[in-house]
Amino acid sequence: MRTYIAPIGYDSTRVTRPILSQGIERDTHIDLLIPTTTTDDSRGAQAIDDVRRMVEQIEPNVDVGTTEVPHDDFEAAIEACGSLIDDANGEVVVVFGGGARDIFLPLTVAALSRTHQIHASYQFSDIDGEVRERSLPNLTANAPAQTRSTLEAISTLEEPVSLTAVTDAVDVSKSTITRHVKVLERQGLVTSETHGKTKVVELTTTGRLLLSRTS
C-alpha cells in the first residue's frame, strides 16, 4: 500500500507525472493538498478532476482525496501537513513541485522533520519538466560524542575514504573506527560500501549539514 501526498495547483501534470513514474497499484491513496480559501477556483478544481480521471483509467480502486491546508497560518499549516504524514498508510511518498507556495513551505518543513516516515520524495522541475527523486536530509540527526572525531576525519579526507585512512587520521584502532562507522550509518550521517577487500565511507547530505551547523 502506498500514500502519495502532493500539493496541487493548476497544472495536474506536476502531480501525475511523479506518480506515474512510480506506478499505481490497488489500494493506493492520493492526497491532494489545496489551500483553505473561499475564492472560487475553477482552474484548480479542473486540475483535481484531471488527476482523478487519469488515475481511474489506470486503476479504478485508487482513492483520490483532497485536504485543505490553512494558507494564512504557517504553524497550523505545518501541523496539518505533519498530521497527514503521521496518519498516512503504507509507504509515504511526498511529491514536491505543484500547488501554492503557501503550502509548499509548510509541507517541506513537516517532511524534513519526519524523514524516517517518508519512503521517497519526488520533485517536478520548473526548469526542464523532469521528475527527480530527492533524498531528504534528516535535520534532527546527531552524532554520539564518541563518534564525532571519526565523522570530522571523514569530512576532511578525500571521499570516498577507506577505513584504514580514517584510522590513521584519528589514531585509534581500526575496530573502533568500524564501530563508529556503523553507528554513524544508523544515524544516516555516512554511507559505506566494500570495494574488493577495502571498505570505503563517505558523508551523506545529512552528515554535511550536521557538521556545518555544529562547527
From TrEMBL:
InterPro entries in the record: ArsR-like_HTH (IPR011991), Csa3 (IPR010163), Csa3_N (IPR054588), WH-like_DNA-bd_sf (IPR036388), WH_DNA-bd_sf (IPR036390)
Domain of life: Archaea
Ranges where the Csa3 N-terminal domain occurs: 2-117
Pfam families to which the protein is assigned, alphabetical: Csa3_N, HTH_20
NCBIfam families per record: cas_HTH
Stated name of the protein: CRISPR-associated CARF protein Csa3
Organism of this sequence: Halobellus rarus
